[in-house]
Amino acid sequence: MNSIEFKIVQPDDQLLLQQIAGWYFSEWQIPVDTTVKGLQSITAAAGQFQVLMMLDGLPIATGGIYDHVGLVDRAPRFKIYKKWLAQVYTIPAERGKGYGAALCRYIHEQAGSLGLKKIHLFTDTAASLYRRLGWMETEQFDIANRHLIIMEKNCS
């Protein structure tokens, strides 16, 4: 029987930060040091958090709520959105089994428990997943040869 646990990552969880940074590097080529520094800041800040999902004690997925995402640097008009579901990642061996959806539901619940009213995301690969989870599309646009969809979901 599979046991799923969720852990809110803390700024001093160095092994977990390194694990997540390794995943982000392998998936999106984000430098490990950049991820570790960013996650240390995010996990220490009020209103932001990173979650690690474990299956039978082994880390398999992560994601979080961030105040700032890279999209805002490329398209400053999106600064109007303050809380982002971001960097959702599931290890390749566990994809397609519903773990990403479970992680997103948990993050959404945590965002609501913090008193957040609404969260946003952008995607070019997983819009159908987010639609199934109740996210609403707000706009589509192209940037850097990617077709992105901005979505939002109420937390209250």
TrEMBL record:
Family matches, as Gene3D superfamilies: 3.40.630.30
Per UniProt, the keywords (alphabetical) are: Transferase
Q: Name one Pfam family in it.
A: Acetyltransf_7
Q: Which SUPFAM superfamilies does the annotation name?
A: Acyl-CoA N-acyltransferases (Nat)
> Does the UniProt entry include the keyword Transferase?
yes
| Highest taxon, organism lineage | Bacteria
What positions does the domain N-acetyltransferase occupy?
Answer: 4-156
Q: Write the protein's name.
A: Acetyltransferase (GNAT) family protein
